[in-house]
């Protein structure tokens, strides 16, 4: 009997080494901000650590590369949780742009071309980038101008429905011609 392995997605973890805590802070002097956001000024690191311990909290270097490092008196567990929460929120707000491809042949029928134009319009309105490819075979390779004309006609018909921005001009790679396009912001809605 085969074993089935389930792989969990690894959650974004806050690297603890990025934010030194208490004894990990190597600077002699640090700028200290208390738990209420008040600037307590520059003081020796050991004094700042003892001040944080008196309050039952940790001294966390929030800007360790600054000179002197900026530290904050806070609960490190809570600080770590807030940073991870902010990272998750930022990741959720990122827009993922996909690269879609539409292939056309030189002998494509009028109806098939209309279907591909509608599909391209749908992709562009969704915010994806689109790679339009024409593949030539056999004797078609003797007439590369047909491929260029087909792509130009396709772009002309598509630009009547959606604003098209050509990101990569038509170029030949062996037996295929391709171009990369995206929607302009003006006609996206």
What does this structure look like?
- The chain is α/β, with parallel strands linked by helices and 189 residues long.
- The chain has two domains: 16-93, Roll (Ubiquitin-like (UB roll)), CATH 3.10.20; 99-187, Translation Initiation Factor IF3 (2-Layer Sandwich).
- The protein has helices spanning 45-54, 76-93, 110-126, 144-161, and strands at 29-33, 39-44, 58-63, 70-74, 99-104, 129-135, 164-173, 176-183.
- The protein has a four-stranded mixed β-sheet.
- A hairpin with a 2-residue loop joins strand 7 (164-173) and strand 8 (176-183).
- Helix 3 packs across helix 4.
- The chain is elongated and about 85 Å long.
- It starts with 28 loop residues before the first strand and ends in a 6-residue tail after the last strand.
